[in-house]
Amino acid sequence: xxxxxxxxxxxxxxxxxxxxxxxxxxxxxxxxxxxxxxxxxxxxxxxxxxxxxxxxxxxxxxxxxxxxxxxxxxxxxxxxxxxxxxxxxxxxxxxxxxxxxxxxxxxxxxxxxxxxxxxxxxxxxxxxxxxxxxxxxxxxxxxxxxxxxxxxxxxxxxxxxxxxxxxxxxxxxxxxxxxxxxxxxxxxxxxxxxxxxxxxxxxxxxxxxxxxxxxxxxxxxxxxxxxxxxxxxxxxxxxxxxxxxxxxxxxxxxxxxxxx
Length: 260
Ligand code: URA
Description:
Bound molecules: uracil
Strand order of the largest sheet: 5-8-7-6-9
Strand content: 25-35%
Low-confidence stretches: none
Number of domains: 1
Structural class: alpha/beta
Shape: globular
CATH superfamily: Nucleoside phosphorylase domain
Number of helices: 6
Radius of gyration: 17 Å
Mean pLDDT: 97
CATH topology: Rossmann fold
CATH class: Alpha Beta
């Protein structure tokens, strides 16, 4: 193994990937989810690295195609580092598999949201492209996620996601936060987004989408709904497993047939 070919943060390099290079990666915020996907949905799994909690696995999809299950960490700064290094090792398509809080009353916990674009309130993205640069998903991969959700009869919604940098302040949480005071510009923001037909809050996909357009890889995002922000600030724990399983199944099916 060529040690010096390893990327600093993800902890592995091209030499670790063998002869059949993966071109697609599934990217989770949570290292346990990256491990669950690899061990539960892939075969011939190889642990590439568990460096800095950024667990990465190489495995085979049901059709025999190699794929990575990797960890982005929480938030856009961490995601931007991991994605940069995944592009350096040759990844051509990334599906983020995340969790999210819906802000529309009709989007229930346990369902999934497929984002075709994102409202970008993320500082890291400004180091990659101008603020006004569109945060759009790859259209073909996104449509295929929708087809996959229909085939698997997973309850889904497709639309615009708000990607913000903070879970508490930026998503207008006050009752469950250490600091109940919210900046004036954030007060009422969830209601404003609701009226603008934004579907949900999460913390990574806008930066991923901008990186996809700038760096030339296909980016998509599917998130399991674990909070109903039209009702409460809290996570609906009883629905978390269903939400995450739904998002993973849809992503795996779509990844199986994606042609970079
Ligand atoms: N992830 C978020 O960013 N917000 C939520 O409410 C749930 C998951």
